[in-house]
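Figure caption, in words: inputs first, then the predicted bound structure.
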Amino acid sequence: MMTQPQTRSALVTGASSGIGAATALRLTAEGWRVFALARRAEKLEHLAEQEGIVPVVCDVTEPAQVAEALKTVTEAGGIDTLINNAGGALGVDPVAEGRLEDWRWMYEVNVLGTLNMIQAFLPMLREHGEGTIVNLTSTAGLVPYEGGAGYNAAKFGEHALTGALRLEEAEHNVRVVEILPGMVKTEEFSAKRLRGDAAAAEKVYAGVEKPLVADDVAAVIAQAVMLPHHINLDQVVVRPVAQAAQHKVIRRG
Ligand code: 8X3
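Bound structure (2-hydroxyethylsulfonic acid present):
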């Protein structure tokens, strides 16, 4: 199927669940064509059934797999919007006890995975003439907190990459949007960070009446990318009302 020139087309990484999956569904509901990219094929099955979604199996930390994904997307008509959502946190250890392998993994997936995707798809976005890149960083990339250093360092890194990219790509008319979510209750984020401890993961959101959910952030992403191209939401911090700041969360009960 050839893409019509007026059809918007995006690639979303980390699309198998959470914010990535919700974003893929939001954009297809708006008539976009979406390449939903994730590491595990079986986790993409539920999206593959959706009209307008093309599943792409790829680990963003593997340049050879990213090159394959670029080939697939190019042959299928290309994109005008790249949404770098793949990322994550691992561990809540203080600096004194942080595990090197956790820090490496976080840097690899949040910073280098994003870098791999940008380097691969930038020529296509420049050539399009009105390209958009959205990077999902985090409020953890603005304010360090106890037990957060490894994740903070990775997200500060991704935040820096995003700021430099915006400066570099303006002359190519590539819009660079940074979305910085705060507390978002998804099925995987805290479970992964807390190494599968479901009770501890649940405690993160305890008493918060309305934590954000994946679709709330997806709604913000969709708004940002559907604004006329000359409008750039440089940085959007998205939190639940109950989280007035990183250190101030209203919990009831
Ligand atoms: C997730 C936000 O507050 O857990 O990116 O660092 S937080």
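Residues 138-140, 148, 181-183 surround 2-hydroxyethylsulfonic acid (CB under 6 Å).
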